[in-house]
């Protein structure tokens, strides 16, 4: 059966399912905070969970939206953008070669 432990994908969402993702001046608030965190991060040291925590903190003490991370528990502490073992098979059949390379972490 499929459950959290068998997930291969890592999904960051701008907000919880019952919330709305807000924009300011035509730019998504989550995207604005995420880009700043990525610009300040040392890739290879930042984990998926660490990225989420930093983006979440950027929303302040009383956030109007709460970003989420959905992945297998073991992937929470994996380095950000590091592919899951077997990720090369994640690209759909018939996808351009570039998509397969990106899924394999070569993109």
Please, could you describe this protein's structure?
The strands form two sheets. The chain has a two-stranded antiparallel ribbon with strand order 1-4. A two-stranded antiparallel sheet has the order 2-3. The protein has 107 residues and is of the alpha+beta class. It has helices spanning 29-40, 48-58, 97-103, and strands at residues 11-13, 23-24, 27-28, 68-70. Helix 1 packs across helix 2. It is built from three helices and four strands; from the N terminus they run E-E-E-H-H-E-H. The longest helix has 12 residues, at 29-40. The chain is globular and about 40 Å long.
Chain-wise SSE layout:
Blueprint: E1 11-13, E2 23-24, E3 27-28, H1 29-40, H2 48-58, E4 68-70, H3 97-103
Antiparallel strand pairs: 1-4, 2-3
Helix pairs in contact: 1-2
Question: What's the gist of this structure?
Answer:
With 107 residues, this protein is an alpha+beta fold. It contains three helices and four strands, in the order E-E-E-H-H-E-H. The strands form two sheets. It has a two-stranded antiparallel ribbon with strand order 1-4. A two-stranded antiparallel sheet has the order 2-3.
Distance between the termini: 31 Å
Shape: globular
Q: What radius of gyration results from the CA coordinates?
A: 15 Å
Question: Helical content, roughly?
Answer: 25-40%
Q: What kind of sheet is the major sheet?
A: 2 strands, antiparallel
Number of strands: 4
List the secondary-structure elements in sequence, H or E.
EEEHHEH
Strand content: 5-15%
Task: Quickly give the structural class.
Answer: alpha+beta
Mean pLDDT: 83
Q: In terms of per-residue confidence, which ranges show pLDDT below 50 for 5 or more consecutive residues?
A: 97-107
